[in-house]
Amino acid sequence: STIQKQRRELQLLIAELKDRDKELNDMVAVHQRQLLAWEDDRQKILTLAERCNLLKNELNKRNEIVKSLTKRLKFLESQQNDSKTIENTPQKFKELSQKVTDATVHCQALEEKNQSLHCLVLELSAKTGQLQAREQELLTMLKLKDEAILETTDHITDFTSKFKKLESALRAAKIEEFSLNKEKEDLKLRLKELILETNKLKDDLCEKMKENNKQQEEIIHLKQENSCLRNELALIVEKAKRKDQLLQFAKSKQARTDTELSSLRQV
Question: For the stretch 143-152, what's the b/e string if a residue is b when 16 or more beta carbons lie within 10 angstroms of its beta carbon?
């Protein structure tokens, strides 16, 4: 039961580790997507910055052109009194005015575009700061997750070592149980053999008791015969004694008769 409980705890820890690993993988994937988006935005920002620099350069060039045209216009205005160029001056002035107007409109458009690009750069910079803060937060979370994973790994290692010890103890217990079961089976077989031998001995004992009863009956019969024989022997001995007594009586009678006969012969 302890091994099964620790197995369940280990399985729960492994499931929690898998969930945390999955969550960490999801966070890493989100972080990777955010990094890719941040890199894409950074590339866009670099591209826009380069484009802004180009537009600034172009604006500076156009400003230089406007300045040169203004100088030229002033120079042409100073040459207005020249009679040879008086007829062409209004036309050139109109052309220069039109160029100045176009350049001014283009400069305003470039300035507006530069302003919008500057706003976009500021927005992208703020977004980049937010992404960097998010990246720092994700890095902190990753560090915390790594620490949690290390702690969980230590717990898993500890539980694994305990589980291995319990498995070795379980194997030893199984081996001991197998030996005890084998010994139990051997004892069962021995018990069956002993039961069979006991039954056989009981049968032999019954036969022996029957034979003993027969022998006791024979002994009783022999005792009866012996008592009868003893009685007969006693009678025979008594008869023999009586015969001896009669013989002694006959001998004494014969002796008396011989004595009387001898005395009669003497007479």
Answer: eebeeebeeb
Q: How many CB atoms lie within 10 A of CB 229?
A: 12
Of 160, 104, 132, 125, nearest to 48 by C-alpha is 125
Question: Which tens digit of pLDDT belongs to each residue from 32-77?
Answer: 888 888 888 888 888 888 888 888 888 888 888 888 888 887 877 7
- 138's CB contacts (< 8 A; 6+ apart) are 27, 30, 31, 34
CA atoms within 13 A on the CB side of 69: 19
**What's the rounded Cα separation, in Å, for the pair 250 and 74?**
217
Residue 258 makes CB contacts below 8 A (sequence gap 6+) with none
Longest dimension (CA), the chain: 255
The span from the CA of 112 to the CA of 52, in Å, is 12
Q: How many CB atoms lie within 10 A of CB 193?
A: 10
Which residue, among 22, 7, 19, 17, has the nearest Cα to 153 in the 3D structure?
A: 17
Does the model's pTM come out above 0.85?
A: no
Sign of the torsion formed by the C-alpha atoms of 188, 194, 199 and 202: negative
Cβ pair 104, 145 in contact under 8 A = no
Domain boundaries of the chain, sorted by first residue: 219-260
Q: How many helices (H) and strands (E) does the chain have?
A: 2, 0
